[in-house]
Write a structure and sequence with these properties.
Elements: H1 12-27, E1 36-39, H2 47-55, E2 72-78, E3 86-89, H3 95-112, E4 120-126, E5 132-136, H4 147-153
Parallel strand pairs: 1-5, 2-4
Antiparallel strand pairs: 2-5, 3-4
């Protein structure tokens, strides 16, 4: 690990400990589930921007005037051979294209319906990431129960 190492998730020493643990898990073929962080809150409170700060590169669409219309499930994978960031899913795109792809997906949902329960799945790998799952859900709609709020709260991934 180089002296300039900075992980968006943890200190250099913590990440070094994670990497050593990861080596043991891989060597002995021990199945473990990655920790999961779920970002939940009211509409337009900065959940997606917080996720972007965690990921360490511009990848959200929050400046495009489009709100999160479905859960976005990020699967982060540690890969010591990837020096920066690589998008595994959706396939065929670069990290720089991810924000545009998300924006277009959210615009389509907004035009077809208001929200979707189906998650948009993104898998990223990097030598900077520990194995981690992040779920960014659409903002909760304040006030009385509504169909939109119900769609958000009954998201498939929140039930896991």
């Amino acid at each position: 690990m180089d002296a300039d190492f900075e992980s968006p998730f943890m200190s250099k020493m913590s990440f070094l400990a994670y990497r050593k643990l990861r080596e043991v898990v891989d060597k002995h073929d021990i199945p473990i589930d990655a920790p999961r962080i779920v970002f939940v809150g009211e509409t337009s409170t900065g959940k997606s921007m917080l996720v972007q700060n965690f990921l360490g590169f511009p990848c959200t669409f929050s400046q495009a005037g489009v709100a999160t219309r479905c859960p976005v499930a990020y699967q982060l994978r540690y890969n010591p051979d990837v020096p920066e960031y690589r998008v595994i899913k959706p396939s065929g795109i670069t990290p720089q294209m991810l924000a545009g792809r998300l924006r277009d997906h959210m615009k389509n949902i907004e035009q077809e319906s208001k929200f979707s329960k189906d998650p948009y799945e993104i898998e990223l790998e990097s030598s900077f990431y520990p194995d981690l799952e992040i779920l960014d859900v659409p903002g909760l709609i304040a006030g009385n129960e509504s169909e939109d709020r119900d769609a958000v709260e009954k998201s498939k991934l929140l039930q896991l």
